[in-house]
TrEMBL record:
Source organism of this protein record: Photinus pyralis
GO biological process, one term: protein ubiquitination
Protein name (Swiss-Prot/TrEMBL): SIAH-type domain-containing protein
InterPro entries: SINA-like_animal, Znf_RING/FYVE/PHD, Znf_SIAH
Gene3D superfamilies xrefs: Zinc/RING finger domain, C3HC4 (zinc finger) (3.30.40.10)
One GO MF term: ubiquitin conjugating enzyme binding
Entry keyword Zinc-finger: yes
Organism domain of life: Eukaryota
Length: 321
């Protein structure tokens, strides 16, 4: 489909601008207005009652055109095909954004997402911390925002209402390495008794952008429903665990294949150890059963690691092709 894709000159691309958003006509449906102007698939006419007509012929032509990222002025070098740009834009870290520090300490900085780390280091280094976790006191209102550094760049914002025992939080990434499907899991634990802990359902981690400032984007957590399970703590520590669900192209299909291989190998190994025990029973009975359990565990882990390495390795080779 894209074998004949061409890259247009900047002057030619300027003629392929949306009448509403001024972005490229890089996503369908492309509609033409009564005045002859075109709007992209992201937009609607300013006047909703305006009659429009979809231009299928233009879409067929644009299928062969390569479009630069709208954030190329900020450093993005990505070039995408028609109808692939929206997906890229939702993950592009070169978008122009404002500083997440608002309120009484409002910061007027604006720049690309790729520059947030440097900005925090220079102007808000007191908000940098090495781990993605925070602590709230059960009977005190609190709120905060911080950025993890240096391993990965995640922005975490939280707001706790002690009277309602309600916690609102939002977690975003702002680093290119996070382009894979990234999820996170929330762990809440009694700050004084770490044995009293719970893991909550995971959520998808989104790119830091303007929606970070919207209250609707926050996740609400009712601490009260976990209060007794945590042994009525005076303070609660919230830990955020990140997990890549699709690193290096590791697909759900490969995951299913690995699971099947492990299941088959486990059954075979169980049969092997059963026969080995019967054949060498006189010798084995002289030794501790714990030693046999350790050997089996190590063997299972080794086989599992080999299977995962083999599958992920073959996937990377296929990507290079």
């Amino acid at each position: 489909m894209y074998e004949t894709a061409i890259k247009l000159s900047d002057s030619a691309l300027e003629d392929l601008r949306c009448y509403v958003c001024s972005g490229y006509l890089s996503s369908s449906p492309i509609r033409v207005l009564p005045n002859g102007s075109c709007i992209c698939g992201r937009c609607l006419p300013v006047d909703r009652s305006t009659a429009t007509c979809r231009v299928f012929a233009l879409e067929a032509i644009l299928n062969n055109v390569l479009f630069p990222c709208p954030n190329r002025v900020s450093g993005c070098k990505a070039i995408t095909h028609f109808n692939r740009t929206i997906e890229h834009e939702s993950k592009c870290i070169y978008y122009t954004s404002s500083c997440p520090i608002t309120g009484s300490n409002n910061c007027a900085w604006e720049g690309s997402g790729a520059e947030i780390s440097e900005h925090f280091l220079k102007h808000h280094n007191y908000l940098l911390q090495g781990s993605a976790q925070f602590t709230i006191t059960s009977n005190e209102d609190s709120h905060g925002i911080f950025l993890t550094h240096p391993d990965n760049l995640y922005i975490v914002k939280y707001d706790y209402d002690a009277k309602q025992k309600m916690l609102w939080y939002d977690v975003r990434y702002c680093k290119q390495e996070s382009f894979h499907d990234l999820n996170y899991t929330i762990q809440i634990l009694n700050s004084n008794h770490h044995d009293c802990t719970m893991y909550l359902k995971g959520a998808k981690c989104h790119l830091y952008n303007s929606t970070f400032f919207a209250k609707e984007s926050r996740i609400q957590l009712n601490i009260n429903q976990f209060y007794q399970y945590l042994d009525e703590p005076r303070s609660i520590t919230v830990v955020i665990h990140f997990k890549y669900t699709n690193p290096g192209g590791y697909s759900a299909q490969n995951s299913h294949l690995v699971s099947s291989l492990i299941e088959t190998l486990t059954e075979s190994l169980d049969m092997f150890f059963a026969k080995a025990f019967w054949f060498y029973r006189e010798y084995i009975l002289r030794h501790s059963k714990e030693i046999i359990d350790v050997i089996k565990t190590v063997f299972y882990l080794a086989v599992t690691q080999v299977c995962v390495s083999a599958i992920t390795g073959s996937t990377k080779v296929n990507h290079k092709r």
